[in-house]
Design brief:
The protein is an alpha/beta fold. It contains eight helices and eight strands, in the order E-H-E-H-H-H-E-H-E-H-E-E-H-E-E-H. Strands 1, 2, 3, 4, 5 and 6 form a six-stranded parallel β-sheet that branches. Strand 7 and strand 8 form a beta hairpin. Helix 1 (15-29) packs parallel to helix 7 (202-217). The longest helix has 16 residues, at 202-217. It starts with a strand and ends with a helix.
């Protein structure tokens, strides 16, 4: 397979850097072709501003959605964005690797999403009618490809459990897994999460590294998170409300958008 790993950590000698090397070495040992976008090393520009849209008139009001649409349609996106889009089209699998900072991804990675997931490429595609509401949530330009997260967290795993004070890790990562990756069509694999990383020593690293190697070996066979497809009949269009009676008894919140129990994909990621 062809794999793109987008790395978002400012220190290459960090635990994140070591885990990145473990993943890359295992993927290459399995015969996969791998590319890396190291955002800090590339000096990636995170903010969306007028410089992203060279065709925008100096006196025109910047409406990012409209400007992104025009730039994509006219092939006028900046060269750095075009290069990342080409990588996404090339790759069979996208891996986003980052530390969990303030319950989300680092700003530089969010800026990569903001700029690279252009209108007409990752969103704003497909028919919008009373039967379909665009090609998204299971459909889109990136359908048929796989994606997953490699995440490090300073807190304990118990802190991110169903009753943990930080909230369940599946819920915290839902906006990324479902809202960023599943939205343009990716089959999203269960995330690989390392906990208590600020307290790691050499003895603790090897079992973690082996767990990551095993996930990389199963990259093509791990079942994806069973999100409901938007246009598959589960949602009323155009209100986009889940049809009555489809959720499991007692299910609320993000769990409503899963076809099966959370254990299905949690166990698949072990």
């Amino acid at each position: 397979m062809k794999i793109l790993l987008v790395f978002a950590h400012p220190e290459p000698r960090s635990l994140n850097g070591a885990l990145r090397d473990v993943a890359l070495n295992e993927l290459e040992a399995q015969g996969h072709e791998v590319r890396v976008s190291d955002l800090y090393a590339q000096g990636w520009k995170a903010e969306v501003d007028r410089a992203d849209f060279p065709l925008l008139a100096p006196d025109a009001r910047l409406v990012p959605v409209a400007a992104s649409k025009k730039a994509f349609e006219t092939q006028a996106l900046t060269d750095d964005v075009k290069a990342e889009i080409e990588k996404l089209l090339w790759a069979d699998v996208l891996i986003l690797q980052f530390p969990l900072w303030w319950f989300s991804m680092p700003a530089i990675l969010k800026g990569w999403i903001d700029r690279v997931f252009a209108y007409g490429f990752a969103y704003g595609v497909g028919e919008h009618s009373d039967k379909r509401w665009g090609d998204r949530y299971g459909e889109g330009k990136l359908a048929g490809k796989r994606a997953m997260l490699i995440v490090t967290a300073g807190g304990w795993e118990e802190h991110y459990s169903a009753r943990g004070v930080n909230g369940p890790i599946d819920d915290l990562l839902f906006p990324i897994n479902h809202g960023i990756l599943y939205y343009p069509g990716y089959d999203v694999l269960p995330p690989f999460v390392a906990y208590r990383v600020d307290r790691f020593d050499e003895a603790a690293f090897e079992p973690l590294a082996e767990r990551l190697r095993e996930r990389m070996r199963r990259l093509g066979s791990t079942p994806p998170i069973p999100y409901r497809q938007q246009n598959g009949g589960d949602y009323l269009i155009p209100s986009m409300q889940l049809r009555p009676g489809l959720s499991e008894a007692g299910a609320t919140g993000f769990a409503l958008h899963l076809n099966d129990a959370r254990e299905t994909f949690r166990q698949a990621g072990e």
